[in-house]
Specification:
four-stranded antiparallel β-sheet; 127 residues; 11 strands; globular; mainly beta
């Protein structure tokens, strides 16, 4: 049974930083792509960042490019999202996801591209 457990969310002032973690178990972590999505109240879940199985290729939504960094440690079965220069509009529940596909050169991902999800972690950025 696949489990994804996020941690690291919290309350931060605008301009601050947070690092999210997602620990995976249940299947061979290094065989799958990973991603982060977020969902703000009243809005659809949106893509934030993705990383391929090896960590050698990444993709970002335009809204976070240059501020967020996705990485993974296959020895620890963990994916990370380093978030810098946070803005109030980054406030959302952040979810990690695992799936079989990674499309190099594309940032056009939807929730349907991923088959397992974590429970989410709240990130609140105050102005």
């Amino acid at each position: 049974q696949v489990q994804l457990v996020e941690s690291g969310g919290g309350l931060v002032q605008a301009g601050g930083s947070l690092r999210l973690s997602c620990a995976a178990s249940g299947r061979t972590f290094r065989s799958y792509a990973m991603a982060w999505f977020r969902q703000a109240p009243g809005k659809e879940r949106e893509f934030v960042a993705a990383i391929n199985w090896s960590g050698g290729s990444t993709s970002y939504a335009d809204s976070v490019k240059g501020r967020f960094t996705i990485s993974r440690d296959n020895a620890k079965n963990t994916v990370y999202l380093q978030m810098n220069s946070l803005k109030p509009e980054d406030t959302a529940v952040y979810y990690c996801a695992q799936g079989p596909l990674y499309r190099s050169g594309s940032n056009n991902y939807t929730p349907y591209d991923y088959d397992y999800w974590g429970q989410g972690t709240q990130v609140t950025v105050s102005s």
